Amino acid sequence: MSENTTFSKEDLERKVTLSAGDKAPEFRAKNADEVSVNLSDFRGRTVILYFYPKDMTPGCTTEACEFSELYDDFRALNAVVIGVSPDSSEKHVQFGKKYGLKHILLSDEDHEISKAYGVWQVKKNYGKEYLGIVRTTFLIDKNGNIIKVFKSVKAAGHAAKVLENLS
């Protein structure tokens, strides 16, 4: 750990433990329009719930744009795409407008959703440790059960891989 950084035992031990067959944790968060969204709002549809670190960064932009490009394909399969990051709703509005994103973006500023899904973890970059989102995607069936978990996702080409798992 870097000299000035301390993490709680919970932070140090957090990891993605959810797997296929588990009930997806329910959540409530604001979308870019400041409207509250619950996971249960999408019962009866497949949910692609992807967690990403930050709007307007190269990898996150690639991932979001690829999900948006395949939006109609996901919709044809009765699936909804939801991106979650710690960014504010206002930042999501800017991100969505700049790149013409079609899918839902949720704000998780308090990291409660990310913690519930185990993706808010200690990360290392250039010798520094910090808390952040580990890029992860959950496929959730129409009854709210996890079908598949994609861990430590590489942004480029990921949306197409998710689509292949639904087809």
UniProtKB/TrEMBL annotation:
Catalyzed reactions per annotation: a hydroperoxide + [thioredoxin]-dithiol = an alcohol + [thioredoxin]-disulfide + H2O
Protein keywords: Antioxidant, Disulfide bond, Oxidoreductase, Peroxidase, Redox-active center
GO molecular function, one term: thioredoxin-dependent peroxiredoxin activity
Domain Thioredoxin: 18-167
Primary enzyme class: oxidoreductase
EC number(s) per entry: 1.11.1.24
One Pfam family of this chain: AhpC-TSA
Cross-referenced InterPro entries: AhpC/TSA, Peroxiredoxin_AhpC-typ, Peroxiredoxin_BCP/PrxQ, Thioredoxin-like_sf, Thioredoxin_domain
Family: Belongs to the peroxiredoxin family. BCP/PrxQ subfamily.
Quaternary structure (record): Monomer.
Function: Thiol-specific peroxidase that catalyzes the reduction of hydrogen peroxide and organic hydroperoxides to water and alcohols, respectively. Plays a role in cell protection against oxidative stress by detoxifying peroxides and as sensor of hydrogen peroxide-mediated signaling events.
NCBIfam families assigned: PRK09437.1
Protein name, as recorded: thioredoxin-dependent peroxiredoxin
Protein's organism: Campylobacter magnus
